[in-house]
Amino acid sequence: MDTEAELPKRSTARHKCVACYKQFKRKDHLIEHMKISYHSVHQPKCAVCQKLSKSFESLREHLTGPLSKAHCSGIFSDRGCNLCMNIFDSPSSLIKHKEACSLSAPVPFEKTLSNAESQKKISGAIDEKRTCRGPKAVAMDCEMVGGGSNGTLDLCARVCLVDEDENVIFHTYVQPQLPVTNYRYEVTGLTEEDIKNAMPLKEVKDKILEILNNGESTGRLMLDDGKARLLVGHGLEHDLDSLRMNYPDHMLR
Predict the structure, then answer these.
(1) Molecular function terms in GO for this entry (predicted)?
(2) Which residues, other chains included, contact 123 with Cβ-Cβ below 8 Å and sequence gap of 6+?
(3) Which pTM value belongs to this model?
(4) Are 105 and 189 in contact (CB under 8 A)?
């Protein structure tokens, strides 16, 4: 019995990321996570536990999703705004806030246009008249739906590129590579019907690169004096990752 008592206990300590709270069995795995996660103070943050999320959709899942944290979810349900995801000191403060923060679900892009414009804008064709003028920069935004068992995996379902004058160059629905489990309609305005016959991801990627490279060879993309275009956007690393794309860091803004 003394021998059994002297046996060392196996350590079960786990190493936790202080930003996103992911846990790792080994410290070197945590270090590797910190190197590639690029956590930022600008990421959406839970006002209860201070956990950082990759996107507002992820924060929404953390607070209201099927696997939400009970403590955070309880406080948010009492004093949280479902639109801006902020939490207030009291229910009365929340009521006052909602008077100014009242937005309806987004109207799908094509429904704000005439039928002719809709087909042109959402067809997935590149507007050659816009690209041939040679804008030096192109802005891109992707709309994400949810995949995975709890709908928190970001899947690109729509992408739009505009030039420096905000003219649409390329706009299309994207066929997600995994089954969609949450269309996040209140944020995206997307439905199953929208992406039923959407453009395959590889074709979308090729068209975007055609616009960005602007006829420049791959070898010259790293040069500052080439014809390739600057890519502008918010959270571009996340969008490029969802599109399975790479673009030189010095060309991103």
Answers:
(1) exonuclease activity; nucleic acid binding; zinc ion binding
(2) 171, 172
(3) 0.51
(4) yes
